[in-house]
Amino acid sequence: MDWLRENNHWVFDLDGTLTVPVHDFAAIRSELGIPSEADILDFLAALPEAEAARRHARLNEIELELSARTVVAPGAVRLVECLALRGARLGILTRNTREIALVTLSHLGLLDYFEPAAIVGRDEAPPKPEPDGIRRLAGQWGADPTATIMVGDYLFDLQAGKAAGATTVHVDRTGSFRWPEFADLAVVSLDELLPLIEPAL
Question: What Gene Ontology molecular-function terms does this entry list (predicted)?
Fold first, then answer.
């Protein structure tokens, strides 16, 4: 696992990765009148502009309410601290808005570890699974996307990472690891990454 110790460009998903999951996506779809099988952002993007704006506003309200209930994931603080101490560049790539990501990171006590420009939401780049956000962050850092690590808990995170050429880490608290073809490493908790990176300090 030398690549974990040597790589200094890390991109994290936010909800469910740096946080304990709190989103009930079935309830969110129901609240917004979105079919149960539809991707929320794709569905909203296909609506007429005025209707999309109305439902996006409600989605933002829901996500802001949820941000106040978030709890930092086990191992997240120590992992981010360790990476920051060794000079790693750290980014957030979320399907939330950047504004809500800022609120969430502040609530978790993690905001100071991320440069403002390195927090990329759905309005700054096409949402995952598109790889544009990873490429944007790598470009800001003067790095090739293949020299980045994408850490996430969902398929879209891993697909975005692979499409960008990044190395991917799947965090799955259930241990079911449903998408092994998209993950270079799979862990149940961020705690598992700590002994793999700490020798580099």
Answer: hydrolase activity
pLDDT at residue number 199: 56
| Count of domains forming the chain | 2
Percentages of the chain per state (helix, strand, coil), in multiples of 5: 50, 10, 35
Which residue's entry shows tokens 């690891």?
A: 177
Four-point Cα dihedral 91, 105, 200, 133, nearest 10: -10
Same domain for 100 and 159? Answer: yes
What pLDDT is stored for residue 181 in this prediction?
98
Cα 21–128–195 angle (5° rounding)? 55
175 falls in which pLDDT band (50, 70, 90)? very high
Domain that holds residue 162: 2-21+71-197
User: Residue 81: enclosing H or E segment and its boundaries?
Assistant: helix 76-85
